[in-house]
Amino acid sequence: MNNNKIFIAKLGKAVGLQGQLRLFIDSDFPEQFKKGAVFSTNRNLQLKVSEYNPSRELIKFENYDDVDTAKKLTNQELYSTFEQTRQYCKLEKNEFFWFDLISCEVYENDLKLGMVKEIQRYPLNDYLEIITDEELVNKGLPKVFLIPHIFDKYVIDINIETKTIRVIKSLEILENS
């Protein structure tokens, strides 16, 4: 992650003669690739979507209307901003943007377990990677551990405004890590 930017996709090779490119999405929100959406690239280009075909995973950008100009975009990474993401990506109940969860403090009852460093994606579940609170590390517990991001089983409540996550059964995970 780069300041206020989130990696959301990578552009593949040009497909056909009309400037379409293969799109490899790294986001849970493919709906953000709609016509008119603007993304920045790792080469500091601003690209505006002119067409997106989700069934074929193809995208086309304004001013890239043929295969030769589109080829110049091959292997570039697309980035969105936090603001764009909040605007175009709609969340359901108990869903949160990863960038909002990072740096949240994690508590079980009144005991601070640590702070969210990153989110790890595994096939069955996502996991919160926690940097263990220094006080607990001094007692011989591991410096880092994972909590399954499963509501009601491990995660009770997330408050983005106060940057806190209340959990259960997670001290046990830490002690057995």
UniProtKB/TrEMBL annotation:
Pfam families: PRC_RimM, RimM. Belongs to the RimM family. The PRC barrel domain binds ribosomal protein uS19. It is found in: Cytoplasm. Binds ribosomal protein uS19. The lineage of its organism: Bacteria, Pseudomonadati, Campylobacterota, Epsilonproteobacteria, Campylobacterales. GO terms for molecular function: ribosome binding. It comes from the Bacteria. This is Ribosome maturation factor RimM.
